[in-house]
Amino acid sequence: VANEGGKHWTVNEVRALIHIWSDKNIQQQLEGAVRNKRIFEEVAARLQKFGIDRDWKQCRTKYKNLKHEYKSVKSAQDSGNTSKSMKFFNELDAILGHCTIEQASKSDNDESERPPEWTEAKSEKDSIG
């Protein structure tokens, strides 16, 4: 996957980004924001504290890409396709799974009712160290 603004994100960089993104304060800001440059400047500043040098645009692009990939995996799984997965699905599901995403195609769907086979299936794939 070509990455806007240079080098690819390492697993640790993505983990750090998701860790910051999982902050309730950041989530609330992102949910209500249309213009979110300021929020991603804060995210980039927090990444700096982990020694990760990314600008706000790179953070926003990675955030959008992760969110897009998550939504496509989630909708595939919701329609019964369990072969589709992604590296940080469980982490993202913890952040995005509980809330109705503004652009979600099935926003009127009850997100809390997940098929039981899904709960077991996702833990096996995510045991990557």
TrEMBL record:
Record domain Myb/SANT-like DNA-binding: where: 7-95
Pfam families documented for this protein: Myb_DNA-bind_4 (PF13837)
InterPro entries given in the database record: Myb_DNA-bind_4
Coiled coil: none
Ranges for region Disordered: 103-129
Ranges of compositional bias, category Basic and acidic residues: 105-129
Domain of life: Eukaryota
Name of the protein in question: ZSC29 protein
